Amino acid sequence: MERLLPQLALDLSEPAPGNLSGLFAADVEDLRLEIGFGGGEHLIHEARKTPSCGFFGVEPFVNGMAKAVAAIKGEELTNIRLYDGDAANLLDWLPSQSLSRVDLFYPDPWPKRRHWKRRFVNADNLARIHRALRPGGVFRFASDIPSYVDWTMIRALRHGGFAWPAETAADWREPYPGWPGTRYEAKALREGRRPAYLTFFKS
């Protein structure tokens, strides 16, 4: 954490460079963002699987960040940059239409009604995601909390700039292709909660 994280951490105090690919040691052709990567299972899996893609990972909790840094060091990955603050700040910092995909998996559901205003999915953050995505870019959301799934569906479609192409129940009940799963998801499945996997395209 003391040696490697400062090299991986994004500095938002300066404007974003014109060429975001230059932020990575690897030669990357595509850019994606994962918001709240938890223990980093999916982030590391994707970075390993797609070395030509640069990944921005956001996680405010130190334990999750430490796990990701350890995995990045152990696997010598050079296509990940990290940020430990509010993902809204990073989305504002990124240039318009700079990302091909934004992933938000198992965010805090804030289940009590009086806390719903704290949910990450809201009109302002959906506007931020939409601005950062390229035309045809993808926003993926997974959760095991039905009320949050419904909440996200309603707000994404209300935004007007996202299309949901699902045709059958399998399109949201089955995990994404190549999905590695996460520890949180495994716990949800053990406890009998069935996740939903939503995919929206920037229209």
UniProtKB/TrEMBL annotation:
Chain sites annotated for binding substrate: K112, D144, T182, R183, Y184, E185
Keyword annotations of the record: Methyltransferase, S-adenosyl-L-methionine, Transferase, tRNA processing
Catalytic activity: guanosine(46) in tRNA + S-adenosyl-L-methionine = N(7)-methylguanosine(46) in tRNA + S-adenosyl-L-homocysteine
Annotated residues for binding of S-adenosyl-L-methionine: E34, E59, D86, D108
Superkingdom classification of source: Bacteria
GO MF term list: tRNA (guanine(46)-N7)-methyltransferase activity
Family annotation (InterPro entries): SAM-dependent_MTases_sf (IPR029063), tRNA_(Gua-N-7)_MeTrfase_Trmb (IPR003358), tRNA_methyltr_TrmB_bact (IPR055361)
GO CC terms: tRNA methyltransferase complex
Assigned protein family: Belongs to the class I-like SAM-binding methyltransferase superfamily. TrmB family.
Function: Catalyzes the formation of N(7)-methylguanine at position 46 (m7G46) in tRNA.
Protein name (record): tRNA (guanine-N(7)-)-methyltransferase
